Amino acid sequence: MSFMLLGILNSQAAGGGAGAFDLLETTTLTTSASSVTFSGLGAYSDYKHLQIRMVTRSSQTGTDNSSIGLAYGATGSGSYSFHYLRANGSGVASSGFSPDTNSNLGDTTADQAPTGAFGAAVFDVLDFSSSVKNTTHRGLIGFYGDNAKNIKLSSGAYFNTAAVTSISVFNPSYSFVAGSRFSLYGRA
């Protein structure tokens, strides 16, 4: 499953032609951190959509999966809704929440996973600079959680028509470990 998601990431990174993504910035953690923020997004106004590609692992211990949250601007700065569909080979689960002060993007691999295993995720932030409609996002996530390999589809909305000038990705109760990587891409 991780190889499938990494293949998707690599194929999109090839670039060229309509719909190609341009790498805008990357953060690779050298120490644990509870969040990563991409700020100054107004500098990317030539792009219509943004994409965040992540390879992450949480410091959480135990058998549970570890959540990844997203907030536009400061955490708790707006009203969000989100929903997801998750499968692990033996069952399917779904849920949704509205309103909330941030959006749950999905999950990441936690400490109970095999040594060196990281989760992979791709999130699209659609029309981030529009000031006439709400910002929406969607994601595809692969991770090891609840002692099983999981895949999750998620989507959400931010109920504020202001242009998004920063995006924070965070691990609500724990930290992303060193080696976790966050890359921001733009698409015209």
Overview of this protein structure:
This protein has 188 residues and is mainly beta. Helix content is 6%, strand content 49%. It has 1 helix and 12 strands; from the N terminus they run αββββββββββββ. It has an 8-stranded antiparallel beta sheet, with helices on one face. The chain has a 4-stranded antiparallel beta sheet with strand order 2-11-4-7, with no helix packed on it. The longest helix has 12 residues, at 2-13. The protein is globular and about 45 Å long. Residues 1-9 and 11-17 have low confidence and may be disordered.
What are the secondary-structure elements, in order, as H or E?
A: HEEEEEEEEEEEE
Helicity level: under 10%
Structural class by secondary-structure content? mainly beta
How many strand segments? Answer: 12
Shape: globular
How far the N terminus sits from the C terminus, by CA atoms, comes to 29 Å
Rg computed from alpha carbons, rounded to a whole number of angstroms: 16 Å
Beta-strand percentage? over 45%
Strand arrangement, largest sheet? 1-12-3-8-9-10-5-6
